[in-house]
Amino acid sequence: MPENVTISRIDGVATVTIDRPDSLNALNVNTLEALDRTLDETEDARVVVLTGAGEDAFVAGADIGYMKGLSVEEAMEYAELGHEICDRLADHSAPVIAAVNGYAFGGGCELALACDLRVASENAVLGQTEIDLGIVPGWGGTQRLSRLVGDAAARRMVFLGERLDAEAAAEIGLVGEVVPQDDLDSVVEEMAHQLAEKPRFALAAAKEALNQVHEGPQSAGLDYEKRLWSGLFGTADQREGMEAFVEKRDPDFE
Ligand code: COA
Question: Signal peptide position in this chain (predicted)?
Fold first, then answer.
């Protein structure tokens, strides 16, 4: 099995790249597990950068071909794995920057949401698009999105499955800044190196304290979301939504 995740390190900055470009870096189990293992190698990094391989995608989401046949129990296991990885990013002692270099849909948007900072290239498109597959965000999206962009914008995105270009995403605060595609690497590199020069324990404390703002109710919300999400794998709309995607046709929901 190919690893589908690479890591490079320069001066305390670990760059983790999800590398499955033929599927627009969609996260199948193999890739999620590789990401989990790769995050082990970032534990002593001062800054982590997360990005996707190729010109087109950060991560086009959880793998729909894999998900479409999941039972409720299997969906719960997949949700657990996705949550574990998003939690690792959110709780990492180092700041994590998402370099959003293209499509960031569904689980891809949720990975970006679990990072501390999001820098997008002009060609990026972001969305919690799960509704059109007959499900809802299941890797923390309902909770983290709402906290980041506010309730109204989150409802719009989640209910309509809107796909926002980078500028629209910046307007609602979903990404912090938008840069020309060719400049993304250098802008992120500069930001990462600035952060790497800050006092690491103070930075870790700042992150931990800022994370506390969302503690308590969020963990209950995340558990709630996991149960709801996996429960949808018993519905006809989930099967239809995902089968339609794989068969390249419009879904016919009940
Ligand atoms: N899961 C599995 N495979 C995916 C995928 C996903 N989330 N997103 C894209 N792919 C695959 C496609 O099936 C296709 O594979 P193929 O070449 O074997 O047919 C390949 O990636 C390229 O995608 P394609 O749809 O042909 O490219 P496009 O440029 O026309 O469209 C997107 C790109 C991202 C707009 C489109 O692929 C899309 O809408 N993907 C689903 C996004 C989504 O809903 N994600 C949330 C999942 S929770």
Answer: none
